[in-house]
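Record type: monomer structure entry
Structure origin: computed from sequence
Chain ID: A
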Amino acid sequence: MVKFIVGIVIGALVIVFILTNAEIVDLRLYFWTVRISRAIMLLIVLGTGMVVGYILNGVRISKMRK
C-alpha cells in the first residue's frame, strides 16, 4: 500500500512539473527541426525511459531464473 501511495505522489509531482513546462521549444535532431511543446517532449522522454527500464528489468529477471 505504501508503494502505491508513493507512486501516486510521484506521478502527481511529475504531472505538475510537466504542465508547468508547456512552452513551445525547437527539437533539433541532426537535419530535422520540430517545434513541439516541452510538456509533450517530457512525456515522450518519460515514457521512453519507463519502457527501457521495464525491458531491462525483464532481461535481468530472465537471466536470474536461468
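Annotation 1: The chain has two helices and two strands.
Annotation 2: The chain has a mean pLDDT of 88.
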